[in-house]
Amino acid sequence: xxxxxxxxxxxxxxxxxxxxxxxxxxxxxxxxxxxxxxxxxxxxxxxxxxxxxxxxxxxxxxxxxxxxxxxxxxxxxxxxxxxxxxxxxxxxxxxxxxxxxxxxxxxxxxxxxxxxxxxxxxxxxxxxxxxxxxxxxxxxxxxxxxxxxxxxxxxxxxxxxxxxxxxxxxxxxxxxxxxxxxxxxxxxxxxxxxxxxxxxxxxxxxxxxxxxxxxxxxxxxxxxxxxxxxxxxxxxxxxxxxxxxxxxxxxxxxxxxxxxxxxxxxxxxxxxxxxxxxxxxxxxxxxxxxxxxxxxxxxxxxxxxxxxxxxxxxxxxxxxxxxxxxxxxxxxxxxxxxxxxxxxxxxxxxxxxxxxxxxxxxxxxxxxxxxxxxxxxxxxxxxxxxxxxxxxxx
Length: 394
What we know:
This protein is 38% helix and 15% strand. The chain has helices at 10-16, 37-44, 60-72, 84-95, 110-119, 136-140, 165-174, 224-237, 243-276, 295-301, 318-328, 358-364, 380-392, and strands spanning 77-81, 101-105, 126-130, 147-153, 178-182, 200-204, 218-222, 281-285, 310-315, 333-334, 344-346, 370-374. The chain is globular.
């Protein structure tokens, strides 16, 4: 006769409840089943802790990733969107109305500039582009009664200029204006904009956060009020990230700091090497160099003597030499993105800033001779030898 098993004790049940998967599962579902209409009401009334209904309203994988990044950025809440530009669009359109005015740095990523300059005016939103290195009085003179938001990058793309975030936070606070900081190039391990006064911090998680060129997401971090409004708008326009990309990014978070530290170390060494190649290189843009105009600012703002994993440099003989250099590289490849474990290059004039006016390129220092480098985690001697032979041959 089969012996009946004893019922587990409360102590056993308590211990068993602590068993959990070592790796986060992928919640590959677009919808959740509900037993009745009353429970639906409970969800919409916020009575179900960590409740889910439909993927556009949120998913466990995106929730967990958002919390991890928000914690790293020292902010109250986070939100994951489908892309970096999706996250930017959400934060802009969630906080701006017809007739709103934006102040933006004039050296932003090309896609951001095009969005502000060519698309938002159709909705009655105007943008003034300023030199972020201007004086307080110069910047303050651009504020209007209808200015609602200021947008800057911690480290600009692709000219690698450093923004004085604390200064902008102080100026924005005086006018009760939201400060949004794109921290993609730096990461929270180089600087935490919220600690310096930023209201919202954004990332193209496709880049250093993901780190392996195998996912596409964007992340927003900030105070609860602003993020909740962004989440509401995100749901309404459908820019929620899918579970698999969120799962990949959450996996990458565990090595994010290690990768950034190695990228920073390699970038510093490569910048010094390129600066020594005066026979081929006319200028190197990297805040870790003493020659960089914002080196002292970067040393004051950035953490643990790290200056980011991105650099740019100008070759001496224009587009023809830039093209030859790109062709000569053997290990580093041309890629229209950044932040991966492998070193890549891009030509801003041909990719990220292709649709920026020649006038604005000139104003911000983007030339046909400029090469942008996303420095990876390879052994530095391999990176150096590849760049050396490419320079020698162009």
